[in-house]
Amino acid sequence: MKDSGKTREQLLEEIAHLRQQLEQLEQQKSQSQNTEPHPQNVQQAVEAPHPNAVHPLKNLWQTEAALRESEQRFRTLCTCAPVGIYLTDAAGHCTYVNDRWCEITQLTPEQAIGEEWAKALHPDDRESMFEQWQALVESGKEFSLEYRFQYPDGLIVWVSGQATALIDETGNCSGFIGTVSDITARKQAEAALQRKKERLDLAQTVANIGCFEWNIQTNENIWSKELETLYGLKPGEFSGSYEAWASRVHPDDLAQAEADVRQSLNTGELFTDWRIIRPDGDIRWLHARAQVFYDEAGKPLRMVGVNGDITDRKQADAALQESQAIIQARAEELETFMETVPAAVWIAQDPQCHHMTPNRTAYELMRLPFDAVMTATPPDGKYPFPFKIQQNGQDIPPGELPMQHAGRTGQAHEGEFEFVFSENDVRSIYGRAVPLRDKSNKIRGVIGAFLDVTERKQTEKALRESEFLFRTLADTMLQIFWITRTDGYHEYFNQRWYDYTGTTLEQARDEGWQSVIHPDDMPSTIEIWQNSLRTGQTYGIEYRLRCGENGEYRWHLGRAFPLRDEKGQILKWFGSCTDIHDQKLVIEERAQALQKERDARLELEKAGRMKDEFLAVLSHELRSPLNGILGWSRLLRTRQLPPEKVEQALASIERNAQAQTQLIEDLLDISRIIQGQMRLNLRPTNLIPSVQAALDTVRPAANAKSIQLECLLNLDLDFISGDPDRLQQIVWNLLTNAIKFTPEEGQVTVRLEQVGSFAQLQVIDTGKGIRFDFLPHVFDRFRLADATTTRSQGGLGLGLAIVRNLVELHSGQISVASPGEGQGTTFTVRLPLLLSPSVWVEPDKFSIQDQTAQNTAFYLKGLTVLVVDDEADTREFLKAALEHYGASVITATSTHEALQHLQALKPDLLLSDIGMPEEDGYALIHQVRARSQEQGGKIPAGALTAYAAESDRVQILDAGFQIHVPKPVNPAELLKAVMELSGRMASM
């Protein structure tokens, strides 16, 4: 039974050896039996044996004895072996099994012979078993496999099978020998261990897992939001199907993952890993664990489980081996470090620091020999060192030293203290001690590191003194001072910065300082500052900084210079901000004053040129009609002109006088416009009469040039709010302008229509058009497209300026368009319509021209009119005109003479000039109104004057006159004024 202690491999080797011996012995026996000894030879051999000869029968007997012994040993070994043993022939057919084999497989020796034994194999293992066995038979390859036998009662036993070929003396395979070992207990233990490991891994992944429930029957897959997050999906984004899950699995893992899922439907559990690809392309490892639930018939219904992100664990597993190697290297490096580090290091093996291991620097720091015994807290409590350990001049008890404190409290301890070797030999020490703990978190020792910081302390002291001087100097400066790192991060501002900006250091650091810079200055400031940081060039710029006290922005000059080391590398930037606001204002004011002076000079030069041009044009426009008036007047005085020439002369004089009157009216209108004194008599007005009246006025001029006047009027146009006289003036000016610049046989079109809520008037001509460069200046005062002496048309350039202002006073708009020179011009006027116009009845107008058939002497018959004017020609004209209409006229040249006539002759009406020497018309009316009614104080009075502004009219009426008649005045207007004043207009 001693063979039972041998290993399976040893047994196989010994059995194979015995088997080979048996085969050799059987071969020898067979050979001996095939060679029958001759009796004579036998007899001779017996009777006369050679000393060295072997009797043939003796060899046979010996072979048979050895064979029987070998077979007995083989069977004894197979019977005692703890494993199942079997033999096969060269074809692989079983020829022998031992008892242990039968016990393991629950098969009889008869069932094992041949291939009957294969029926007891577990169905899932037969294929792999046959494949490996066939490989053994065909190639002699060693057989080694773990597989299962299934008992008739369903019990399964796991075995580990091995087999090898038996090779005879000729090198051929004579058969196979193999063993089977019962490993069921091991397999069960491994399975239990595996399940325990799975449960443990599942519990460890609760920090990052997601749950799912898959209805196997309906294919509905429900995920928790945490699982969707693991897969890189938004909550609710998962569509909820098996296929949707499969689409997220890495293509290289999908087949195995699906196989694991299918297998879990049979086993009841899913335990596997796979990779997923998130929508953003990130690849993560997930661990899946699930339980399958079945119905009563054993059909799988649903699977419930979790997925956990194990990417870090996967990476950690890969890095574990590398980490272990690194740890080993670090341990070796630590030993080297202890001896090379310039700090004094102590390692205590106990919390009380009785046993300590210092490095070389520690011995040097304490000035002790390297072989000195080191302990920090001896039993007597006295320092074992040739120095004292003090803090602020007081001895530190041994138990309160950093390492002892850390060992006692379990907390890291650091601090500064002194090694006092003598009164004049004191070293400043900085140290830190940390407790060392074992696996149970119990303090097992302390490690401490200490540095001699004497020189550093001295340097810090000197630095503090230097910094104090620096800060004192910086804080007393009137300028803002700052320091930044090489990347522009602000480390320091002096007190002036905080006083001015009202910010704190935290607010100003990083990019916070930009908040006080004026937004308009920010881009250039950052650009120049970044360029300086990048190139190292000196920084300089002017910008505005906001004052924290009142929010005012003040101009500052910002400058910064880099501080470099001996290699030229920038260490820091030192900068300042200087308030230059007052200087900037002075400079800006001076620049503005200079610019204003230049602009004023240019404006004056321009105004001078325009004045000269205007005076030249005005002189021309005044002299031209005067030339005709004076010339014809002188010819008329000769009384030698024929009747037809007399009529021509009178017509020319009247036409030129009217031109002079219109010129003066335009100048007065411009004056009123400039002074803001233009007044309108607004009322609901129909534009059509104003347009027709203007057309009637210009028609003779159009006919004279054979210009076709086309009129397109919307007779249903709504009323506007306007002054009819001024509206007629607008239309007349535009028509006159169009006819003036339209060549003979051209066309002028007037179109009046409603456009939206506006009345739109257009005057369109086929004339010379307007240059593009002059279009913006068409409505400017005194601007002429051609101001040269060779210009083909007259005028002062006032008409369109007056039109524009009159249109704007009517809350309207005017525009001009022209394709270019020679292509005509279109003026468009748009006036707002009244929303709810009231009914307006145009009053009847008295017109002298309409009464030409009547006797003119009838109008003023019976009236005595006192005319006062210092100009003899005007006075005589008024006297002749009034007498022509039937009035009796008394004339006076001064206020004094007029008062005398008023007292003596008792006239019915008073007509007086305003501008007279010594006493003007205002003085006259004041004295008249101061009289009683009997003395003529209530006499109707009218002012005939060249003061024609609106303010003049108001002043005249306020002074006591009833009407204001501007000069020059024609006889018809004079008659109308006198009739209104006398009250005879109402009776007409």
Question: What attributes does this structure have?
Answer:
single chain, 988 residues, alpha+beta, Beta-Lactamase, 7 domains, seven-stranded antiparallel beta sheet, five-stranded antiparallel beta sheet, 24% strand, elongated, disordered N terminus
3D architecture notes:
The protein is of the alpha+beta class. The protein folds into 7 domains: 185 residues, 2-Layer Sandwich (Beta-Lactamase); 107 residues, PAS domain (Beta-Lactamase); 112 residues, Beta-Lactamase, CATH 3.30.450.20; 121 residues, 2-Layer Sandwich (Beta-Lactamase); 86 residues, Orthogonal Bundle (Helix Hairpins); 153 residues, 2-Layer Sandwich (Heat Shock Protein 90), CATH 3.30.565.10; 133 residues, 3-Layer(aba) Sandwich (Rossmann fold), CATH 3.40.50.2300. It is built from 27 helices and 34 strands. The strands form 7 sheets. Strands 12-11-17-16-15-13-14 form a 7-stranded antiparallel sheet, sandwiched between helices. Helix 18 packs antiparallel against helix 19 and helix 19 crosses helix 22. It is elongated, with a radius of gyration of 65 Å. The termini are far apart.
Q: Sheet with the most strands?
A: 7 strands, antiparallel
Please tell me what the overall shape is: elongated
Instruction: Give the overall pLDDT as a whole number.
Output: 82
Q: Any idea what the radius of gyration is?
A: 65 Å
Q: What portion of the residues fall into strands of 2 or more residues?
A: 15-25%
Q: Low-confidence segments, ≥5 residues, pLDDT <50?
A: 1-5, 35-51, 786-794, 837-854
- Number of DSSP strand runs: 34
Structural class: alpha+beta
- How many individual domains? 7
Provide the helix percentage. Answer: 40-55%
Assigned CATH class of the largest domain: Alpha Beta
First-last Cα distance: 168 Å
CATH H level, superfamily name of the largest domain: PAS domain
CATH topology of the largest domain: Beta-Lactamase
CATH architecture of the largest domain: 2-Layer Sandwich
Number of helices: 27
Could you give the order of strands across the largest sheet? 12-11-17-16-15-13-14
